[in-house]
Amino acid sequence: MNLNDVRGKLDVLAANQKQLEWLRSLPQADFVADVRNLDSTLHRLQTSIQALLDLAAYVVGSLKLGTPQHNADIIFALRDAALLDSKAADNYVTVVAFRNRVVHLYNRIDPGIVYEILLKHLADLESFRKTLVEVILRHPDAPIGKEPS
After folding, report:
1. pTM (2 decimals)?
2. DSSP annotation string for 68-86
3. Is 85 contained in some domain?
4. Is residue 60 predicted with pLDDT exceeding 90?
5. CATH number of the CATH domain containing 61
6. Higher pLDDT residue, 91 or 139?
7. What is the rounded distance in angstroms from the CA atom of residue 85 to the CA atom of residue 117?
8. Number of domains in the chain
9. Which stretches of the chain are DSSP H helices?
10. Percent of the chain residues past pLDDT 90, beyond the cut
11. At how many degrees (to 10) do helices 122-138 and 111-120 cross?
12. Residue 53 sits in which domain range?
């Protein structure tokens, strides 16, 4: 991943955030009345979480923090390097678990829980994004991801 890829992931996150905020503004009855709202929310959450994981993996690789075997290991590597506090890391591991549920257990998604995530946990995504951007900006000379000459 290079800096253009990082910008691309951040663009996805910004577009998704805008749409998720709109979906979040819907009353719950309206949200669940139209399956397109659930579908859009799941897609936007899944792609946001994946973009965050991609950025986090970029940070882990750039800073040579090990080779994670699983998505949660990316979060643990950041925590172990003191780039995330334990509580934030636990929240982000929960976010990753939700993404895995959407991808692998898609037939067992409760619209009420998805709506609750919209109301209570969008801030977790934004917090993770801010943390990753801060780390990337603090380490501009990391060996991976330099723009081609």
Report:
1. 0.88
2. -SSHHHHHHHHHHTTSS-H
3. yes
4. yes
5. 1.20.120.580
6. 91
7. 21
8. 1
9. 3-24, 28-33, 35-62, 71-80, 86-104, 111-120, 122-138
10. 67
11. 50
12. 3-138
